[in-house]
Design goal:
- The structure is a single chain.
- α1 packs antiparallel against α2 (33-45) and α2 (33-45) packs across α3.
- The chain has helices spanning 6-14, 33-45, 64-71, 84-97, 108-111, 137-148, 162-171; strands spanning 54-58, 76-81, 102-105, 120-125, 149-158, 174-187, 197-209.
- It has a seven-stranded mixed β-sheet, sandwiched between helices.
- It is built from seven helices and seven strands, in the order ααβαβαβαβαβαββ.
- β4 (120-125), α6 (137-148) and β5 (149-158) form a beta-alpha-beta unit.
- The protein is α/β, with parallel strands linked by helices.
- It has a single domain (6-19, 31-209), classed as 3-Layer(aba) Sandwich (Rossmann fold).
- Residues 50-138 form the Methyltransferase small domain.
């Protein structure tokens, strides 16, 4: 399915199920089909970083980025996710659209990179933004991503943290460039949310590994 148009990709991804009962401590929010398709399509069309490449999806959740990368012709996709319930939904999504990607249940922050060091051409992720009790989680994800990737990492980060993110990436041996500014619509998923949805200003950043 490598010759997929953006509209087709988004349509496919819209069929996928998200979290049934998102877990606040894991900051679980489903990446929308709109954002996921644009992230992946940009990575492929502008930079040729998906088709024929080995791809990791960190914190893959229900598998929207993993399955999207597979649709665009990745040679091998592995999603890494700590939550067994999310992986059950991912497996269901795979079955429903008859497209299968490998998934590994593990605590990314404890067990990676391990044997996967520099194993992947490309890492894609929508990490926890580090709110609530998870301060700094996005940077921990980014550090691990730079160890897994031999070429490039694509990630979403809150725009308010842009300078900090780019500085930390440089310390990790990666040159970051903001390639899109997005509004991430966070639907009301948890009881403490007061509003039906909130728009979060987000950067879509491409980090090129300087040692590849």
């Amino acid at each position: 399915m490598a010759n997929v148009q953006l509209s087709e990709l988004e349509e496919y991804l819209q069929q996928l199920d998200g979290f049934d009962e998102p877990k606040v401590l894991l900051e679980q929010y489903s990446t929308s089909a709109h954002i996921a398709s644009h992230m992946l399509y940009c990575a492929q069309i502008q930079f040729a970083d998906i088709e024929g490449r080995t791809v990791a999806d960190l914190g893959c959740g229900c598998g929207i980025l993993s399955l999207g990368a597979q649709m665009l012709g990745s040679s091998h996709v592995i999603g890494f996710e700590i939550d067994a319930d999310a992986l059950k939904i991912q497996y269901k999504n795979c079955s429903e659209i008859e497209l299968f990607v490998e998934a590994v249940q593990c605590d990314i922050l404890r067990y990676l990179p391990g044997r996967f060091e520099k194993y992947f051409d490309t890492v894609i992720m929508n990490p926890p933004f580090g709110t609530k009790r998870n301060a700094g989680t996005d940077m921990k994800f980014l550090k691990i991503a730079t160890k897994l990737a031999s070429n490039v990492v694509y990630s979403l980060h809150k725009r308010s943290t842009r300078n900090y993110v780019l500085q930390k990436a440089a310390q990790y041996g990666a040159k970051g460039k903001v390639i899109a500014e997005l509004k991430y619509d966070l639907p009301k998923a948890y009881k403490f949310h007061k509003k039906a949805s909130v728009d979060v200003q987000v950067d879509f950043i491409r980090f090129e590994l300087l040692n590849h």
